[in-house]
UniProtKB/TrEMBL annotation, chain A:
PANTHER family xref list: ABC TRANSPORTER PERMEASE PROTEIN MG189-RELATED-RELATED, POLYGALACTURONAN_RHAMNOGALACTURONAN TRANSPORT SYSTEM PERMEASE PROTEIN YTCP
Protein known as: Multiple sugar ABC transporter, membrane-spanning permease protein MsmG
Primary site of residence: membrane
Species this chain originates from: Paenibacillus pasadenensis
Pfam name, any one: BPD_transp_1
Mode of membrane association: Multi-pass membrane protein
Keyword match Transmembrane: yes
GO biological process: transmembrane transport
UniProt family annotation: Belongs to the binding-protein-dependent transport system permease family.
GO cellular component terms attached to this protein's record: plasma membrane
Entry keyword annotation includes Lipoprotein: no
Subcellular location: Cell membrane
Organism classification: Bacteria, Bacillati, Bacillota, Bacilli, Bacillales
Keyword line: Cell membrane, Membrane, Transmembrane, Transmembrane helix, Transport
Domain ABC transmembrane type-1 per the UniProt entry, residue ranges: 70-266
UniProtKB/TrEMBL annotation, chain B:
Organism: Paenibacillus pasadenensis
Subcellular location, principal: membrane
Location(s), subcellular: Cell membrane
Domain of life according to the entry: Bacteria
Name the UniProt record assigns to this protein: Multiple sugar ABC transporter, membrane-spanning permease protein MsmF
Transmembrane segments: 33-53, 99-119, 131-155, 183-212, 233-254, 294-317
PROSITE patterns, per database record: ABC_TM1 (PS50928)
Keyword Thylakoid: no
InterPro entries membership: ABC_transporter_permease, MetI-like, MetI-like_sf
Homology family: Belongs to the binding-protein-dependent transport system permease family.
Length: 292, 327
């Protein structure tokens, strides 16, 4: 009898848990639409005393830095994801070919990168001294291009879902290796491309570490790094407010709500697309999950 | 987990080389497969730059790195960097923190994730189940920078929710959170669990959903309650998964989540006493204080211990269940 209906305690428990997951976002949202005097008087709260969109108006007035950061992030994400998917799948395809003579050695080459790392300092020097890409967009794109894990996930997909006979017959019909890869393998690998692609998008979109390490030029700040600066550096927040406020009088600037409004502007689009992507995200999390 | 597949696959594939004509050797063979090599080349190159060049760079830990002299011109100093590192009390502190935090994250994270997965599996309504899963993964979806904002919303010493809306009405003094290291082990444990538990729960849920339903049918016929089914069927059946995932996490126990320790604490130097871990230490030595000797020696120590740990853990996993080993 209790198979059809869920135990109400479970529903209550899970609802409370979901609330705990969502409430922190709600707090930041409320601050962003609160009146600054209320905030400074009563502190942050989960319900605005009166709704005041002044912070968003500020950000509109000086939207240049945010728009720029958005532009950097979008550009880096698009290029990064496209190149990453291409080179990852090309390597994975090569590794999935059982007749490829260097398969074992190449697999080890990929796998070893997951076991041992040179550490932050040599990695930093490779990009700054050897490639000299600090303060360029390349510094934001290159480090995320390839990961051993993704290569292996894709390779598993290719070996499990593309029958070797398909490749053989295409090549008997005269298709070159490139043609086989581009017009047979790639179209068949859309599911795994979507999953890995989504994870790569999120990784590039959420990346702030490479900016922290490699970027000094304010014009190249990514969205997350701009946010990071706004949170940790009061002077930086003040500068944003000053710039937006230069043409008005000396009313106290709503620094608190500006800061949180910036976070909302960054989270907003993500939260809006999240429900649509969630299904793929879950699929990705459980990709290759251990069999029970 | 993908590594699990990888291992299975290697074992499945190795014994069956493709029955083609006897492969030719050397350059001729490479020429025959030139197209596949060309396809693989960009990724090989990128792995070389991003992963292998830094590995060769570990010799820097034995040099007194000096930017004006350059990498090659800097003097060799043998183990001096390591002597400095281990002479300071810092190193034991950061090792202890890294291990204890990861251990606490692992224990609490695993218990809660398994519990959450079991409970999620009990939800019969598809819509509700989807909603709960969405809410659970949302924290995993946002960046650590955003997490820093959320924590700040609660802990801002002047206006934060905790000081203003909880402590003040109770008549207690506000706490200068970002200057009070004693609270941070609990805060970080809470934040990390909040961010990661939904993700792990989904992984465990996938394992539970994959269990053979016949066990449950048989148990129901015998009159087992749902509680009995959970504790007597679900938990024992996913225990191997728990063990494997735990072992794999132990392999990474020497690596801290830099983002968590950097963003959630807002990089406050007053919290170091309880929140400094190897990764933040190396970062600070390299980019804040510019002490490259400490950065390279601590980094190399972390890499080597991490490598040994992964090999050891893999050895243990192989003993328990060969198909789940990484290699």
């Amino acid at each position: 009898m209790d198979n059809k209906r869920t135990n109400p305690f479970i529903i209550i428990g899970l609802s409370l848990f979901s609330l705990a997951c969502i409430l922190p976002f709600w707090l930041v949202f409320t601050i962003s639409i609160s009146n600054e005097t209320d905030v400074t008087k009563h502190g942050y709260s989960f319900w605005p005393k009166q709704i005041d969109l002044v912070a968003y108006r500020y950000l509109l007035q000086d939207s240049a830095s945010i728009l720029r950061a958005y532009g950097v992030t979008i550009l880096v994400t698009i290029i990064g994801v496209a190149v990453s998917l291409f080179i990852t799948s090309a390597l994975a395809y090569t590794l999935s070919r059982k007749d490829f003579p260097y398969r074992g050695a190449l697999s080890f080459y990929v796998f070893f990168t997951m076991l041992f790392s040179g550490g932050l300092l040599p990695w930093y020097l490779v990009y700054t001294r050897f490639l000299g890409v600090q303060d360029t967009l390349l510094a934001l794109i290159l480090p995320g291009l390839i990961g051993g894990f993704n290569v292996l996930i894709m390779r598993t997909f290719f070996t499990n879902s593309i029958p070797p006979s398909l490749i053989d017959s295409a090549q008997i019909d005269g298709a070159s290796e490139y043609r086989t890869y581009f017009s047979i393998i790639l179209p068949l690998s859309l599911p795994v491309m979507a999953t890995i692609g989504l994870f790569t998008i999120v990784a590039y979109w959420n990346d702030w570490f490479t900016s922290l390490v490699f970027i000094n030029n304010e014009k190249l700040y990514s969205l997350q790094y701009l946010l990071n600066k706004t949170l940790m550096n009061a002077a930086f927040l003040q500068a944003i407010a000053d710039k937006a406020y230069s043409n008005t009088a000396t009313v106290a600037q709503p620094l608190e709500s500006i800061r949180m409004a910036m976070a909302m502007v960054a989270i907003g689009p993500l939260v809006l697309v999240f429900p649509f992507l969630q299904k793929y995200f879950v699929k990705g999390l459980t990709v290759g999950a251990v069999k029970g | 987990m993908a590594a699990v597949d990888f291992a299975q696959q290697t074992q499945e594939e190795l014994p069956e080389p493709r029955a083609k004509a006897r492969p030719r050797r050397g350059l001729k063979q490479a020429w025959q497969y030139r197209a596949l090599i060309v396809l693989a080349l960009p990724a090989i190159l990128m792995l070389f730059i991003n992963n292998y060049l830094p590995m060769f760079g570990i010799f820097l830990a034995f040099k007194d790195l000096n930017y004006t002299e350059g990498i090659w011109g800097s003097a060799w100093v043998g183990l001096k960097n390591f002597e400095f590192l281990f002479a300071s009390n810092d190193v034991w502190r950061i090792i202890k923190h890294t291990l204890l935090y990861n251990l606490a994250f692992l224990v609490l994270g695993t218990v809660l994730a398994v519990l959450l997965a079991i409970v999620l599996n009990e939800v019969r309504s598809r819509i509700l189940s989807r909603f709960f899963q969405s809410a659970a993964i949302l924290p995993n979806f946002v960046s650590m920078v955003i997490v820093g904002y959320l924590v700040f919303g609660f802990l801002n010493p002047d206006l934060g929710f905790v000081n203003k809306s909880i402590l003040e009405p109770m008549g207690k003094d506000p706490v200068a959170w970002y200057a009070s290291p004693e609270y941070w082990p609990y805060i970080l444990l809470l934040v990390n669990t909040w961010k990661t538990v939904g993700y792990s729960a989904i992984v465990y849920l996938a394992a539970i959903v994959g269990l053979d339903q016949e066990y449950y049918e048989a148990a129901r016929i015998d009159g087992a309650s749902r509680w009995q089914q959970m504790t007597k069927i679900t938990v024992p059946l996913i225990t191997p998964v728990i063990i494997i995932l735990t072992l794999l996490a132990i392999g990474r126990i020497f690596n801290a989540d830099f983002g968590l320790f950097y963003q959630a604490t807002m990089a406050s130097s007053m919290l170091k006493e309880t929140t400094e871990v190897i990764d933040t230490y190396v970062y600070n030595a390299l980019l804040v204080t510019g002490d490259t000797g400490l950065a390279s020696s601590a980094g190399l120590m972390q890499s080597i211990v991490g490598f040994v740990l992964v090999l050891t853990v893999n050895y243990v996993v192989r003993k328990i269940s060969k198909e789940n080993a990484l290699f």
